[in-house]
Amino acid sequence: MRSFINTTTATLCVSLFAAMPASADPFLDEVVDFQSTIFYFEAGVPGVVVAAVKGDDAFVTGMGETRKGNGVTPTGDSTLRIGSITKAFTGQVLAQLVADGLVSFTTPAAELVDGELGKALADWPSVSLVQLATHSGGLPREVPRAKAEDPADPYATLTTEAFTSWFNDHQPLYTPGRNMLYSNFGFDILSAALSGAIGSPYAEYLDETILSPLNMNDTGFERSTTNAELAMYGHGFDGEPLPHIISGKMNTGSGGLTSTANDMVKWIKWHLNEKADEPETRLLDHAVYFQRDHFDQVQSMDESGRLDGAGLGWVAMYETDDHPFILQKAGGMQGELSYVALAPAHDVGVFISINEYNFSAALGMASFANDLVATLSGY
Q1: Taking every annotated instance into account, which residue ranges of this chain make up the domain Beta-lactamase-related (predicted)?
Q2: Burial class (CB in 10 A: 0-12, 13-18, 19+), 288
Q3: d(Cα 319, Cα 336) in Å, to the nearest integer?
Q4: What is the pTM of this model?
Q5: What's the burial of 122, exposed, middle or buried (CB within 10 Å: 0-12/13-18/19+)?
Q6: What single-letter DSSP state applies at residue 138?
Q7: Which residue, 33, 76, 144, 252, could crosslink 262 as a Cys pair with Cβ 3.0–4.6 Å?
Q8: Rounded to a whole number, what is the distance in angstroms from the first to the last CA of the chain?
């Protein structure tokens, strides 16, 4: 990141940062602390949390406010929404089920979904699990639905009935596998199919197999009440704070998770540690399944960096002179925007979250994280 920050600003920022334990790597601390300061002042958002991992070391910092005007600086324990980064967790569950032999990537989703939704899917052209996991299943971004009556539960009308009705009344937007079009709908169908494969609720399986083993105790579809006073609040396009909301029961595959930066460090470390549990799952999860030129059209996939290949929820960016091979994913919900980028070959990962709908800041957030990954990887 080519930026300048004068001594006065650098001194001022000390009072705006949450006190965080230093890592064992002073280089990591210095680079992340300084670059995060620059990003925060340039972004102009109420609050920012940054977590960086390099090998066994991690550094987490927070700056600004969890809610505009409250004077509370976010920390690694502040709960926050990761939005569509949830899709990377869904992809990991798919990888684990494939590794365990419970499904294959080419299994049609209709074979796994029960009830009326399964019947509607069965009458549709076949869509495989890997097509759903790579946004290539012929589905729209969202399912049209009525506005919820309760503002605190905006996803109340995102129901199995709404999904079923759409399949009964529509054909694919394109032949499945032919194009790539970002689809929250597709990942919610994927989580429904995975739930059918395991015979239990998807959220329970995610907790039992990924979250609990990694001690991600503050991550889930319900916001953790631990350290509630540190919780991040999103802000709208007008800069006004937004209330916390219920995640919803049907968007478990696409975007319902809340977490903390400290929990995300645990998850990132699993991805970067070749000796950690479930190596087969990790190998499958980090693979690229389709090159960009496999598709006739690629739409709404390049906002955080150009997609070169499609992973399981991941956007793969191939190595260039400026950065290493990166797996990345962005997410946003209820005025909170988050981003994660991994360079597995260099044992480097970065997570960042801001608490305002500010698309200029969101683009800057992705550039900041990608540049930081490159710097920590030696580029």
Answers
A1: 42-356
A2: middle
A3: 29
A4: 0.94
A5: middle
A6: S
A7: 76
A8: 12
In tens, the pLDDT along 3-17 reads 333 333 443 444 455
Coil, helix or strand for 53? strand
Residue 349's H or E segment, with its range, is strand 348-354
Of 137, 83, 91, 102, give the one whose Cα is nearest residue 311. 91
What is the mean predicted confidence (pLDDT) over 203-210? 97
What residues form DSSP beta bridges with 220? 258
Tell me: pLDDT of 254 over 80: yes
- 317 backbone dihedrals φ, ψ, rounded to 5°: -115, 120
CA 128/CA 159 separation, integer angstroms: 22
What are the b/e assignments for 323-345, b being 16+ CB within 10 Å? bbbbbbbbbbbbbbbbbbbbbbe
Q: Domain coordinates of the chain in residue numbers?
A: 1-42, 83-336
pLDDT in tens, 336-359: 999 999 999 999 999 999 999 999
Burial of 171 (0-12, 13-18, 19+ CB in 10 A): exposed
For domain 83-336, the CATH class is alpha beta
